[in-house]
Queue: 3 jobs
Job 1
Amino acid sequence: MANAHEYAKANGSQFEKQLDDLLRIKSISTLPECKPDVQQAAEWVAADMKRIGLTTVEILPTGGHPVVYGEWLGAGSSAPTVLVYGHYDVQPAVKSDGWDNEPFDPVIHDGRIWARGSSDDKGQMLAQLKAAESLLANGSKPTVNMKFLIEGEEEIGSTNLGKFVAENKAKLKADVCVISDSGMKTIDQPVIDYSTRGLMYLDFEVFGPKQDLHSGGYGGVVHNPAQAMAEIIAQLHNADGSVNVPGFYDDVLKMSDEERAELRNHAATEADWKAATGVPQLWGEAGYEPHERIGGRPTLEINGFVSGFYGAGSKTVLPAKALAKISCRLVPNQDPNKVYELVKAQLLALTPPTVRSEVRLQASAYPAVMDIHSSAMTAALNAFEKGWGKRPIFERGGGTLPIIADFQRQLDNLPVILMGLGLSGDGAHGPNESFTLEMFHKGIDTAIYFYEELGK
Amino acid sequence: MANAHEYAKANGSQFEKQLDDLLRIKSISTLPECKPDVQQAAEWVAADMKRIGLTTVEILPTGGHPVVYGEWLGAGSSAPTVLVYGHYDVQPAVKSDGWDNEPFDPVIHDGRIWARGSSDDKGQMLAQLKAAESLLANGSKPTVNMKFLIEGEEEIGSTNLGKFVAENKAKLKADVCVISDSGMKTIDQPVIDYSTRGLMYLDFEVFGPKQDLHSGGYGGVVHNPAQAMAEIIAQLHNADGSVNVPGFYDDVLKMSDEERAELRNHAATEADWKAATGVPQLWGEAGYEPHERIGGRPTLEINGFVSGFYGAGSKTVLPAKALAKISCRLVPNQDPNKVYELVKAQLLALTPPTVRSEVRLQASAYPAVMDIHSSAMTAALNAFEKGWGKRPIFERGGGTLPIIADFQRQLDNLPVILMGLGLSGDGAHGPNESFTLEMFHKGIDTAIYFYEELGK
């Protein structure tokens, strides 16, 4: 009987084929018209769970998109239990955003599979499922119990998952949670993120005249809402790059000098950041290095805006309104609901009496920080060392995994391990998202080692 | 034989039916896909000119959309010749902009005909043509020669008309030009605009990272282009509402104290402006009253902008670029090309080194001012007094009629009379554009009086 690592190696191309299948499902959670696709992705995941031998597989409804749950508890009640979290939903994508291929028609070249969700998170989530498959294959008996919680609303702030976790504490009880939904800079140096940022996302709308006006007949007499919005947005950052929202930094847990020194050891250089993004010069909060601004500091971002006429040619309209999508990434101990109230108050305070504005909360998630000294973390370090041949370094992550804070708060401070398998250049959330096949296979191997380490 | 005024009255409903026909043609000059519709509108106008008895009717090609020309020179070489200018093209419009009806499916209610172009300029232009029809009807012989120049590119800055006029000086030779393409505040008080503003329209694009990025992975390290654009736009006006472009006001011809006092006599109140626009408070350049800011001062307007994600829900993208459409209304003696260079230089100067930007000229037109003491102007005043029962007041117009400066410069300083038949509330360039049928019929009657006055 082949061991789990040999099974994974022998079935590598089959695993890639399965990833290709899943990537073809347009499971964009934020678009109402994709609801059937999201459901289809849930069913695909459930079917795969059943096929690989999980003993209880359910598609569980929530207030939004369903959760897929599967478990294998054959290691017995004295063995440790690992809870695997991942998500099958993806960000929006259309080819015209700048993709070289159709985002839901995956192609493989340059050692990568190119499709929306390949890295975030279908590829990474599937690596965990394929590790479980390898452990369960050939009738072998893993030494760890496994529970899989794969949700469909991560990209829209996991709106309904907190409630689901609170209502299913017994079902989700575990000794450690592992999540593959983050990344490292290069394939040579594995990384474990030990913090994630929270999120607060809002719509900000400015209203001027009751309808679009002729710019010649009214320009100079009414305050143009696009101009007013620009004037408000321009005041949301100070000249030093800090966020100009009273109280915004009040609850920020400062990084210690030791932590900053440790993080600096492995930090990307300014040249690395410029090469990765193509910008002529970096930007950000003064007093913090780029990796600190991503991992340890909160930010405020304009995710998009629209007003008036923006087509080809010239339309001399004075628009009636302008809309901006604004979000903040938060760090411990910021509370997204409190930050929403602060940003909302500032947006309304910055709105001049010449226009009217509205603020509407769209999504929110708590930040989280994880214990790097837990026994589960030691198991993860050992697993990476075996899977990669190199001990991982610790970093602070810039992204948001709403579920971590929920797990910590609802499930007795459950230790969470971020086994990120993405790479910085994967293009998550942007066009031409891709996932390195070598990371996929190394990730499966490392996850197997992790389960083995936990069950020792 | 009925006189021209009786003919116009008897044929009023027929004239409305013809206007309805013309409004159904989607002659949006800025949209390439509407080119056949623009051509169709030109053919409609030419056919009507032939039907009413103009003796030379031509659809003349330009570098863009064609010019429709028609003339009747039966009054003889000793009689004065009037050149009528108008345009058959319209601004873009789709119902989703906020229209209550399909913008190219006219409806009549509340004494108005509702459709794109009803006021600007198909309705006003047709009033002139129907005046000519009335004068020529029943075999009567007008005492004035008439030339009609109806173009198809007014809404895109009359790009090719200047060249057309320069190349057709003899054909267009006239003693006075009349244009119905402006308006008055109320139907009770006729107005003659004696100045129009020029226009400079540009695209401004800001480029940041080479592609859209994950806001969690890069927010706080690169300068968000939407934010950078907002920060640049916010600097284009000073706190006092003046335009912050070095040199912008250098060539502005100041209004005299006498002129300002005269204009103040009939000026709309702040309450009028607020009622017309629905804004909570007016805005604009300090030191000038609202009507002065519209008629006598240059402005800079954001006609629209777009960046990143602006749909429903939340997409945590850091956009790669942002686009704004920016235009200036200009007054004598500003030169649109010089102003373009000034604004471009300021936009580039305000672009921080963290992003890259591009500026592209889209359209330009010269401002114009007209002699209020010419004999043609006296004829216009008399005509309005007969048609309206009230002497017109003089105002400065805020809109742009690129052709006026071209006529003045190419055709021996040809006197131009603006016989505006629109009303401020017509909604030109915005949704629910409409044209008052009473203005249509009064306009036809007044235009007949004008031709009669000129031919005395």
Job 2
Amino acid sequence: MLIVQKYGGTSVGNIERIDEVAKRVKKAKDAGNDVVVVVSAMSGETNKLIEFAKYFTENPPKREMDLLLSSGERVTSSLLSIALYSKGLKSIALTGRQAGIYTDDIHTGARIDKIDSNKIKKNIKEGKVVVVAGFQGITNNGEVSTLGRGGSDLSAVAIAGALKADLCEIYTDVDGVYTTDPRIEPKARKLDKISYDEMLELASLGAKVLQNRSVELAKKLNVNLVTRSSFNENEGTLITKEENIMEKPLVSGVALDRNQARVTLRGVKDEPGIAAKIFNRLAKENINVDMIIQNIGLDGVTNLGFTVPENEIEEAKRVMNELDASKQLEFDTKVVKVSVVGVGMQSHSGVASKAFDTLAKENINIQMISTSEIKVSMVIDDKYGELAVRSLHDAYHLDRS
Amino acid sequence: MLIVQKYGGTSVGNIERIDEVAKRVKKAKDAGNDVVVVVSAMSGETNKLIEFAKYFTENPPKREMDLLLSSGERVTSSLLSIALYSKGLKSIALTGRQAGIYTDDIHTGARIDKIDSNKIKKNIKEGKVVVVAGFQGITNNGEVSTLGRGGSDLSAVAIAGALKADLCEIYTDVDGVYTTDPRIEPKARKLDKISYDEMLELASLGAKVLQNRSVELAKKLNVNLVTRSSFNENEGTLITKEENIMEKPLVSGVALDRNQARVTLRGVKDEPGIAAKIFNRLAKENINVDMIIQNIGLDGVTNLGFTVPENEIEEAKRVMNELDASKQLEFDTKVVKVSVVGVGMQSHSGVASKAFDTLAKENINIQMISTSEIKVSMVIDDKYGELAVRSLHDAYHLDRS
């Protein structure tokens, strides 16, 4: 098998941890696999460098930030290569440039344009473990770029796609994807498999194992992703295409998103163009709108509701107050969003109504509802968040596989 | 003027120091100069990374070491560029690769092959301060290389040469080149000017301001070097070609080299080939021989003396004992070398005899003597080292300019 392994900051957080990673890589290699490893910076390093830069200015030039921040992954990749060498393996560390990761020139948030994987392939053929500095690439002008948050995951997925790797393992300090947050519901169960789409819904809803960009890219490139822990030997969670999942669960997980605030406009004229006007303006001001609910109006007026991240609510208030439409405004930051996710919903009815029933039984009022093919999201009073998660987890028997 | 400034590890040792460096660069820029800055890694960083690597193996692969160690200068160059930007200057940080520093592929001790200075020139023309990561270059294969000890000085000199800069300022934590070590002789005086050749003799004799490689390159490229402190505003010492020094001093400085051990072979047959045999063998074993003294023999036998660095004496003992010639061997580690250096000696006699006189007056026995056009070196008992330096400093009136 050809395996791409990616180790995050805590997994390479100190020199002993890098040694542990080397042992794990050696195991995979000794088992007869070809292995490409992508590493993040040692945890804390990137933040330290950002602090250094902020000493001088709150808005350091992005090109220089990329040069600065890319150094952390160079350190870990060289150190891991040295660690592998010390264990008798042939290995080579490659920078983003040397690994052929070409990006556009949007510094600090570059997108991968293409991967020239010739150098990686050549080194694999020579029997080497290839260790790639994650998070970074090079522009056509030879400038160093970085990929933004979750960039090393993205490097790993893109490389796995380019190499048509059998597996892309993302190592972090958690065991995988759970049916819900185990800190809220101790009966939460680790999932063996989950589809890309379910993962996308769960990630955007608060499961912080993987950034959506990486899952989206894995889906696009058809990369089998596994998230698992580098701190134990537990099997992780396979994120793959729906067809690869034999028994499709009705519901895979319940997610809680606390970072929500609700905006409601009452008495909006029920005529074309109103919604467009509001949401264009919010987009222009870089306010992220999540759920949007509009119902059929009565007597030519309707209510329009939407949610934004809690930390953007002040900005949203300002914008809404500037708009003509902003006559009867209501803002509420004391809300959370609870979501039930599962590919099985597509072919089974009754999933949504069971969710509403469950919350009703607990006397939890549902303020907003939004559904997609594989998801039901509900905005509720924030004090009921944990209760709602536990009740739903029970209602769908998520503690049993 | 076009000035290349190089700041060493202590000069950029923390974020406040980098801020100080930025102020100094701004001053030079505001005075109407074009400025290229070459920086080392923050002091301690390189050693930390070497320690990390040594955790895994005493002999880490050199290619990976270069990738590892080159990260330190990338950090300081980006941070300095950000600091300059925050002070309203236009600036750009360049890696060794981006600065066009091409080297051979001898990792951890690469030699600069050529400098493609187009990118630097282009950015200077755009009014930018160019900040170059020192110590590093790139091979023709796109591998990252480093230049070994004193590598950042070498980067600065090579860039100054390629740009035909008016001045190359090397900033450290000392004020310049002194007539002797001020810790030995408090009356030691900072020199305003010194020739390349004098500096070469002083450096190899223990003045640690500049590595010889950099002075040799400066001489070859005709670069006017200034060593000065980044911790104060004192004028430094200009190292330039002899023609630029109007009043050539008889003696410029007195150096003490404690890292010396003496080897003497008594009763060596006075016939061709003996010396060649011995020194070829020592060279093959990588033992650095410094002074070599052989005198006319009596009755067909002679004595042969030479010095090696003190830490190589055990190795030298082993080699000498293996050689046929090694019958009457004498080893002495309790010796030091005192040298008197000055371009003026070339045209004035009496400099050497004054040195011998001076030591004789102090009852210091001279074990070995070696002279060059601009230097007289004497090996003496190590307990007289400081006394000899002070007496010679006085004898040549080095406290007065």
Job 3
Amino acid sequence: MASDATGEQLDAVVETVRAAGGSAFVSRGVHRTIVGLVGDIEQFQSLNLQTFAGVADVVRISTPYKLVSRDNHPATSTVNVAGVEIGPSTFTLIAGPCAVETPEQTLAAARMAKNAGAALLRGGAYKPRTSPYAFQGLGEKGLRILAEVRDEVGLPIVTEVVDAHDVDTVASYADMLQIGTRNMQNFGLLQAVGSIGKPVMLKRGMNATIEEWLMAAEYVAQRGNLDIVLCERGIRTFETATRNTLDISAVPVVHQLSHLPVVVDPSHSGGRRDLVVPLSRAAIAAGADAVIVDVHPHPEQALCDGPQALVDEDLEQLAAAVRDLPPLLGRRLS
Amino acid sequence: MASDATGEQLDAVVETVRAAGGSAFVSRGVHRTIVGLVGDIEQFQSLNLQTFAGVADVVRISTPYKLVSRDNHPATSTVNVAGVEIGPSTFTLIAGPCAVETPEQTLAAARMAKNAGAALLRGGAYKPRTSPYAFQGLGEKGLRILAEVRDEVGLPIVTEVVDAHDVDTVASYADMLQIGTRNMQNFGLLQAVGSIGKPVMLKRGMNATIEEWLMAAEYVAQRGNLDIVLCERGIRTFETATRNTLDISAVPVVHQLSHLPVVVDPSHSGGRRDLVVPLSRAAIAAGADAVIVDVHPHPEQALCDGPQALVDEDLEQLAAAVRDLPPLLGRRLS
Amino acid sequence: MASDATGEQLDAVVETVRAAGGSAFVSRGVHRTIVGLVGDIEQFQSLNLQTFAGVADVVRISTPYKLVSRDNHPATSTVNVAGVEIGPSTFTLIAGPCAVETPEQTLAAARMAKNAGAALLRGGAYKPRTSPYAFQGLGEKGLRILAEVRDEVGLPIVTEVVDAHDVDTVASYADMLQIGTRNMQNFGLLQAVGSIGKPVMLKRGMNATIEEWLMAAEYVAQRGNLDIVLCERGIRTFETATRNTLDISAVPVVHQLSHLPVVVDPSHSGGRRDLVVPLSRAAIAAGADAVIVDVHPHPEQALCDGPQALVDEDLEQLAAAVRDLPPLLGRRLS
Amino acid sequence: MASDATGEQLDAVVETVRAAGGSAFVSRGVHRTIVGLVGDIEQFQSLNLQTFAGVADVVRISTPYKLVSRDNHPATSTVNVAGVEIGPSTFTLIAGPCAVETPEQTLAAARMAKNAGAALLRGGAYKPRTSPYAFQGLGEKGLRILAEVRDEVGLPIVTEVVDAHDVDTVASYADMLQIGTRNMQNFGLLQAVGSIGKPVMLKRGMNATIEEWLMAAEYVAQRGNLDIVLCERGIRTFETATRNTLDISAVPVVHQLSHLPVVVDPSHSGGRRDLVVPLSRAAIAAGADAVIVDVHPHPEQALCDGPQALVDEDLEQLAAAVRDLPPLLGRRLS
């Protein structure tokens, strides 16, 4: 309550809460009176207590997500992607081209990925781009290329879906659907992938708090799909030396708040090839369940994000990291 | 170029640029050599010069948007919304409830808006919400309420569309379509509203740079729709005293970069009723072409964003501001 | 408390608080138990309740500053700077060169300032600069120039002090001491100016929350000096179109939290001359008690921050704004 | 140049640059003309080209720091702190209490540190605190306690200095001087520690870009002291789940730009004990030359930052990490 709130104003708050079925506990101090509410938090929000006379501030204490919270699901989940496990006892490398361009490029990238120890192949057929003048992806033709390369190389596919009305099409090819950073709060899309019965990789919005990210996952979970992995890919800060700032702390923080596995994307957060290997090592060491990296046989010809794609020499270092570090943390390579 | 770049590396860059039809001008210093490129910037991006050996950094100098740039369209545009002008010689107040809840609430809010000097009615029928457990809007039923209130009160309607596949439905009721902050980079939605032939209000993403916002407008413009107004609604920063930080500088900055009108939303940026009037005054004084505010006959019962809705006493202050300030800046009230 | 906290853990918290002389009110819900504390907040912090077993989070509800809080001092303060008032019934223009360079330049800038309606002269003799290779100010020689110009033009002086051990020297010349953004948490300096008996202008740290800014003011106030004006000068965000983002909302927010007057610096926040007049207008309209701007007779020769200094043509617009806008808000020009 | 710049305006820029002893190379495009400058960058800044008619923007390409740049010093430096090396072939653990409180607490913390593998003892005698009502440190009495504990336990001391006029005193006890995050741009203090002949640990300002941080190091280096280690301790972002956001990418980025060693502080960045071990592992894996952590024998009684101090059980995990991870990266434990 405000320092000049009256007894009547306090009573109005308490009665409103009780009328809504909640409990209100009043703590009176010399300068301030605090009212603690216990009950259904969604209902309390609809009371608009903030607008009541005499109320200085309303602070929420409990978490607003349920299905993805560790509170209600203490064991860490393992998500199975066409036989590949992402979870607490394994470490998984996901690699591939940022964008599918040609069958040859995709096949070469997939082989690079597999040689480096990857268990899953990433590759974009639908690309959300800041500029309408930039390459927007091959669409379903790209999905067919990915499916052929999967048959050839034997790695299940992770690929992005950007529109709710493409979900069925993408799901008919992909083993795991990716929601990109710009779509983390595209709620129609979240609900659509929540209903499709395939694992989902939900990238963090570059401006999203961890709580908002978990709320977005709750949208997917609410439709019955709990096969979700969360992907930290960097947040937007004032620092311009890197494209975004990888929030490495998000890995242990999410593991504490949620039972869902966490993936780190060191390629898109930094936007620089020379950072991918050190950041991949950091992600493994921080406890990430997987990393997802861009590889390209000829980065200087890439139609998208060439500056961050790994080439063969980097991949040897990455292969050593995914081989040597996970066992120190009690994990085996998927 | 890097300080240890070789002549061969420099030549490779210059030749690649020339082969792509561009020009490369070399400036040699003691420690650094700089190569200036002139030509088609989209094509240069596809060259991935950043990945070339010896290249230290690539810095873009010219703007990546064209249709919405003031460079190619020096006169400021006026957007006509069912007879109401938003542009450089007028000032427009847009007001209404955050969410349409009932016919009575919407009608009462519309009358409050009109009494305060509003020329356009805002109101949400489709609401993107962070939590799947929060009120999501009335959908088409809400649009019908808005249309009835328009007939009764005489104010054209601005309302949000959140999914590309609802664009036709929303456009059949609305006089202006709003793209919300979470959808600023929902490119499919931008393209859909770009094709519909109705004015568009494009809210800035809460994490979007001004350049990205103009690129999003370019997506709409590219489909043939230049009836766009840009709405500044606060950006995400470290400050927690306000929900977001209103970037008031965006008003003159956008006016310098683009010919499109600029609207300010002081309700959603602050999230606090006590800030709406001072921020509205600031917006008018900074040169905004319109402000858009939440009003509600009973904020304490609002299903959405009640804490920021203006009530009657605030509206008197707002009405005085929209009456007195614009003439000082050479504008008349729409 | 955590959802799995035991009764013993709860009792330990309650007993610790009571042993420290506070009161603890327990609110038990189905999933969560909340403990409300009432008493001396500084003492509670030293209890480290966050480290107790079973504690999920500690949230502070009351404000940590006292002397500068409006709670304990409901009337807005007026600060008198050598006869010039900064407070709720006046509007004050402060103008002058970013850095004192020569007697001629300073005199010319002071006359420009006075002609535009300024009541106080700003000018830097000690300049904190990011680069050790940049111009660092004239030091005491600059102070003597300022004093001579004051005698000539009749405007009291505001100037920055950057080191606690220069406070006596600067105070012997200046009418008001300025603490710059980089020194907002230089606590030794804050305490030194708190003891000197001259008014203080405390700029907000470019990364400081409003609460931290008020805490810094509390350091000054605690030494017995309540003649403090707070200066909003932009915060650091992801947006790069402006040097910093002017947090215009800080004006009404600080007025609500504190009794101290608020000044806005539109020159340093934007770093661009073309933004100074629109942002000055916005500041006046938002309720600022003063604005402080850079002027320079020859900006293209300025040794510091030339790109943002106003020249004669801009000053005419600024003079019109400080003449016409404050009366609309019930203020007279100082 | 602006798209409407005239030939005369272009000539004025070119002539001004040449008159200042630089070279100007002109690249003419259809829409834009770009002028590349080569010469002394500090001198160019004093030209204020941004203020010239027809100039659209000025973009700096080369780095503004010299002594700390890797360009001029390709080999990574090793800093020797009383016999303990911090550099590319070692990994160093620095540990101790956030604040020195009593001889017993400091001695116990030092023994915990040494048992965990620490080679240096940290501990604060002078504490910069946001609130004037918080514990401010023991001052010189704290330094004497540190010196006694050093004699007893055998670990050299790192301790913070917050005021230029305490530098001699602190240096007479300490083996390495620490500059804290709030003082990163306290230029008088930087110059004072630059003249004292002891190694310096320079913490990154919580709002500083990497470039500003290197510029601050340049202030120290310019006074003749190149025994500097840079300490990443988290930056301020919108995320509130952690106190600050550890910018793990800063480790490889600084290693690429500068020859100075990099330390990571996982205790202050997160402000949470449960994050210290995972973030320490991440720091080692990302290539940090050292980590600095808070330990306390009784965190629940700590006068400062108790919530983040490690206790015995965490220290066993940390000891394992500093033993097992560095050899995988070609380093031995200092």
